[in-house]
Amino acid sequence: MAPAPRLVDAVNERLEEFLADRASILRSISDDLDPLAAFSERFLSGGKRFRARFCSLGFDAVRGSRREHDATATAERYAVVSASAALEVFHAAALVHDDLIDNSDTRRGAPAAHRVFEAQHRDGRWAGDGEDYGRATAILLGDLLLGWSDELLDEGLAALRDQAASRETRLEFNRMRTEVTVGQYLDILEERAWLTRPEAEQRTRAERVVVHKSARYSIEAPLTIGGAIAGGSAGQLEALRAFGLPLGIAFQLRDDLLGVYGDPAVTGKPAGDDLREGKRTVLIAIARERLSTGQRRLLDELLGDPALDAEQIRMLQDTIRDCGAVDEVESEITTNTDRALAALGSSGMDREAARDLADLARAVTRRES
C-alpha cells in the first residue's frame, strides 16, 4: 500500500494546520481554553488512520488511483484529505464520549479525556467535585470536536467544482453521524435491557449494534464518502458498501475479541476491559448460547462488575474460550472478510485501488490493537 504513507502525512499535516487555527481562536477567547486545544492536538496526533485510508481508497476506487494534475484534481485531493481528516476528528469526538459513557480510565495507554480534566481540577484545588468537572468538560470537548469535524469537511467540500458530488458527500457524512449516534444508544440499551429481552434475540440484537455502531461508521461510511467526492454513481457507491459492510463487521468482531483478550501493552486498555464494562457483544451472546445454565448464570452475574480482579477476568476469559465462542467469532471474522473480498473482486473498481483495499482489509481484521 504505497500511497498510504503519503496520505497519512497529508492528513496529519491538514490536522495540524486545522487544530493550530482552532487553538488560536480558542486562545483569542481565553487562555483558560488552552487545555482543550492541547488535549485535542495530543489525542489526534496518533492513531492508525484507518478511516482516512478507507476514505482515500474509496475515492481511488471510483476515480482511479492515477489522476491528472490539474486544478480539478488539486481541488479533489484537498477535499479527500479534508474529509479524511474530518473523519479522524469525528472519531476522536466519538472516543471521548465513548470513554465517558463506559467510564473508562484509559485510551491508547493514556488517561481518558474525563480523567485528564478530573486531574486538572484536583491539581488546581478547585471548588466542587473533580469527577463531575471531568465528565462535564469531556462532554463539551466531544461536542467541540464533533463541530470541528463538520467544519473540516465543509472546508474541503467548498473546493469541489462538482456540487452534486459535494451534496452526496455531505449526505453520506450526515448518515454516518446518525448511524453511530443511534448505534451507541443501542449499545447502551443492550447493556441495561438484555435481561428483559428474549434469549433467542440476544445474538441478533448484539449483531445490530455491530452494524450500526461500528461497521458502517468505521469502514463503509469512509469508503462511500471518498467515493462520493469522486462523483461516484449509485452503482459504484453500492459496490463500496457491498465491500465495506461485511469488512466493517469483521473489524468490529476483532475489536470484540481484543476487548476481552487483547494485550494491554498493545491495546492501551486494561485486560478484559469489556468484561468489566459489561459489553453485550456478539462474543458474549455466542458464549451464552453455548454455556450450561450454571455457567451462563455466573457469566451474567460477573459481567459488568467494575471491581472484577485479575483472577476473575482470567476465569471469564477461560470460560468464554473453552465453550468455543472465540473460535466461532474467528470463523465469523473469516467469513465476513471473505465476503468483502469477493464483493471487491466483482466490483469493477480501479485495479490498483482494489488491490490496496484488499491489503487494508487483511490489516484491519488481523490487527492486535
UniProtKB/TrEMBL annotation:
Its cofactor is Mg(2+). It holds the Pfam family polyprenyl_synt. GO terms for biological process: isoprenoid biosynthetic process. It comes from the Bacteria. The keyword Kinase does not apply. The keyword Metal-binding applies. GO terms for molecular function: metal ion binding; prenyltransferase activity. InterPro entries: Isoprenoid_synthase_dom_sf, Polyprenyl_synt, Polyprenyl_synt_CS. Keywords: Magnesium, Metal-binding, Transferase. Belongs to the FPP/GGPP synthase family. This is Polyprenyl synthetase family protein. It comes from Agromyces binzhouensis.
